Amino acid sequence: MRTLSFGDRLIGEGQPTYIVAEIGINHNGSLDIAQRLIDAAANAKCDAVKFQKRTPELCVPPQQRDQIRQTPWGMMSYLDYRRRVEFNFDDYARLVEHCRSRSIDWFTSCWDESAVDFIEWFEPVGYKIPSAALTDVGLLQRFRQTSRPLILSTGMSTMHQIESAVGILGPENLLITHATSTYPCPLGELNLRMIETIRSRFECPVGYSGHEVGLATTLAAVCLGASLVERHITLDRAMWGTDQAASVEPRGLERLVEYIRDIEAAMGDGVKTVYESERAVMQKLRRTDRVTISVHAVN
Q1: What φ, ψ does residue 104 adopt, rounded to 5°?
Q2: Can you tell me the distance from the alpha carbon of 65 to that of 67, in angstroms, rounded to the nearest whole number?
Q3: In contact, 239 and 24? CB cutoff 8 Å
Q4: Does residue 181 contact residue 131 with C-beta atoms inside 8 Å?
């Protein structure tokens, strides 16, 4: 049975869906907003929150560093903006403690090797490898060196590229998430059947990282076999930021978790059974004038 040990949980076949609230950079550099998003995820009974960590000097291409952008703090260079939304060591210490106080797992997606080195100080339960890093061999090797559980996102990637990345990471401590890297993603490009394709191709659990508007398609991903689901969360979809429009607000997040748990309860084991609650109805409504079936023989 394909499972991944992730903190105190097993993720995979036969296990409850592991639900991740992606905070990402929707905090806009505010520690207060980040803590309120942790609270929203914990209140919704999510299993984990996820942040993003970058070293701006390494991740921002040279040709983009001096480009002037509109930001919540006024006009500034793109490099200065990226610095503004990164949390420092003390900030992460406070966020980790806040997660601990709310009994919710946390981890990050790291976009460069220095970011991995930084996050290692805090001993996360695992790492998410962003879709943008799927072809970065040096970064993939650094992730594997941590010996922590890894989640590989597969947006904007070919199957050959995914296979190559899995070859570097190894399948033993890995979960692969299907994703389409468009924000928000049109329904016709979600391609949810890729969940089944990935399950048939790799010997590891499969998840879904959704960037769509609405909840229904994420629920469909669970029905198709996603062992982990991840959605971006926000306090308000009208807030500034490129990920906000494809994010789920607190009440929507609560509904998503409730619906996933309802689906899990309803899936059953695939064995046809006549339930005790049906027996009185069967005695009342069953047609027996042609064929008589013993109540005790039905099972």
Answers
A1: -130, 140
A2: 6
A3: no
A4: yes
Q: Number of helices (H) and strands (E) in the chain: give both, helices first.
A: 11, 12
The 3-state DSSP class for residue 234 equals coil
Would you call the peptide bond into 184 cis, given omega within 30 degrees of 0 as the criterion?
Answer: yes
**From CA 45, how far away is CA 228, in angstroms rounded?**
14
The one-letter code for the residue type at 39 is: D
pLDDT of res. 292: 53
Task: List helix spans (H) across the chain.
Answer: 31-43, 56-59, 78-84, 89-101, 113-120, 137-145, 159-169, 194-201, 216-223, 250-267, 276-285
| DSSP tag of 74 | E
Rounded Cα distance between 245 and 236, Å, is: 9
Q: What is the pLDDT of residues 228-257, one digit of tens each?
A: 999 999 999 999 888 898 899 999 999 999
CA angle, residues 191, 176, 16, in degrees to nearest 5: 95
The long-range contacts involving 253-259, CB below 8 angstroms and separated by at least 24 positions, are 253/21, 253/40, 253/41, 253/44, 253/46, 254/43, 254/44, 254/45, 255/215, 256/19, 256/44, 256/215, 256/218, 256/219, 256/231, 257/19, 257/44, 257/45, 257/46, 259/215, 259/219
CB 134 within 8 A of CB 161: yes
Question: What is the model's pLDDT at position 187?
Answer: 96
CB–CB of 131/153 below 8 Å?
yes
pTM above 0.70, yes or no: yes
Structure tokens at 13: 């076949």
Of residues 3, 33, 27, the one with CA closest to residue 15: 3
